[in-house]
UniProtKB/TrEMBL annotation:
Keyword Transmembrane applies: yes
Segments forming domain Major facilitator superfamily (MFS) profile: 13-394
An MF annotation (GO) of this entry: transmembrane transporter activity
The keyword Phosphoprotein belongs to this UniProt entry's keyword annotation: no
Organism: Duganella vulcania
The name this protein goes by in its record: MFS transporter
């Protein structure tokens, strides 16, 4: 826990950490709107095109499990910079890829190195006072989500003006610049833990078993992030198809509008600080369901159908943004000494849901069509909402028991 007497994190540092996490995590999403041209250039079949996104998420999941926990053991600034240098090298490999195996290998490495962003988020929590931690995390996560949402349109616009190779080459230079700035600006943070790496890894399983909040929050966000990944894997393919005929620039504009969903992050942080996490979670999960119900209306007008998809993207992104902050605020309250490990397990579990969503969505769209993909996407937050009902029931029972006493 933070020392109540410590100075709170400065606004400038919050801005730096928010910008850094956004630029880092953007690397995971450049390929989402470029699945078509990348798969065509590297020889991937339509059924396997989802692997472009899935392997990046698998790499990220591995990094969350095996690299992020090191934030509780090693000096944080050095760990972050090392991760960014590795990411920059993998982006260079992606930029010069000419075959499927080469690009997919780079995608795995990009995901692995980009977990540096998830060492930065607990860093921000560590620098914050308890009373403002949710708000601070909300601001940093807003930067992260803006990075996610800007990555897609930026990649489309750059690819339309040049080609997809330039997207990854430019990203490599950008990540290298971020590494140099963080090396100069971040304070040192040396964890107090003295355990070995094998013991650190073994502790992840114990944390999972002994931390019900972690399991529950990971399950909620696995449902939402699975639907989010599915949506942004199949929707660009739909937009480029015969119904909409959008160019990469058109897809970029569509993705850019979805950025409006990021406004939910600081709002969710304030709600969490005020003790309204339970009901805010239900609202976030419900937004995920609504985001997939809207496109099913399918008006005959092309423009109305496109407008419905735009609204759906904003609604879905709002749900994901809010729920991510609610989950991180909950697990960051459990203790500073295990914060990196908790964050690593939390992200690993819900990114596994994301990998499943993108792979399943790509396959469903290729084999059964758009509506089957939408129904699959709706099932992810729908199941999470059913699980939430068990928490609500337990909470209500506890309140009733308290009243009787």
């Amino acid at each position: 826990m933070s020392n109540p007497a410590q100075d709170d994190i400065s606004p400038g540092m919050v801005l730096l950490l928010a910008a850094a996490t956004g630029l880092i995590v953007a690397n995971l999403y450049y390929a989402q709107t470029l699945v078509g041209p990348i798969s065509a250039a590297t020889g991937l079949s339509p059924q396997a095109a989802g692997l472009i996104v899935t392997l990046t998420q698998i790499g990220y999941t591995l990094g969350l499990l095996f690299v992020v926990p090191l934030g509780d053991l090693l000096e944080n600034r050095r760990l972050i910079v090392a991760g960014l240098l590795f990411t920059s090298a993998m982006l260079v490999l992606a930029a010069f890829s000419t075959s499927a195996w080469m690009f997919l290998s780079a995608a795995l490495g990009i995901g692995l190195g980009s977990v540096a962003a998830q060492i930065i988020v607990p860093f921000a929590a560590h620098l914050s006072k308890e009373a403002t931690r949710g708000h601070t995390v909300g601001k940093v996560v807003s930067g992260l989500l803006l990075g996610i949402m800007l990555a897609r349109p930026a990649a489309s616009l750059i690819a339309d003006a040049s080609n997809w190779h330039v997207v990854f080459g430019g990203a490599a230079v950008l990540v290298l610049a971020v590494a140099l700035v963080l090396r100069a600006k971040l304070p040192l943070r040396v964890p107090t833990a003295t355990i070995s790496y094998p013991a650190l890894m073994a502790s992840l399983w114990h944390l999972f078993l002994r931390t019900p909040v972690l399991r529950r929050r990971a399950a909620y966000h696995a449902g939402l992030f699975g639907s989010f990944s599915l949506f942004w894997t199949v929707t660009p393919l739909m937009l480029a198809g015969p119904q909409f005929h959008l160019s990469q620039t058109g897809i970029a504009v569509f993705a850019l509008v979805g950025m409006a969903g990021a406004v939910a992050s600081p709002v969710a942080g304030r709600l969490a600080d005020a003790g309204h996490t339970l009901m805010a979670t239900a609202a976030a999960l419900a937004l995920g369901v609504v985001g997939f119900a809207l496109p099913m209306v399918a008006p005959e007008s092309r423009n109305l159908a496109l407008a419905m998809l735009v609204i759906a993207s904003i609604v879905l992104d709002m749900g994901v943004a809010a729920n991510l902050v609610l989950g991180q605020r909950a697990i960051f309250s459990l203790g500073a000494e295990v914060r990196s490990r908790l964050n690593g397990v939390y992200f690993a579990l819900f990114f596994a849901g994301g990998a499943l969503g993108s792979a399943l969505g790509g396959w469903m769209y290729a084999t059964h069509g758009w509506h089957a993909a939408l129904l699959t996407g709706m099932a992810f937050p729908g199941l999470a909402l059913l699980y939430w009902l068990t928490e609500y029931a337990a909470h209500s029972s506890a309140l009733n028991a308290g009243v009787k006493i």
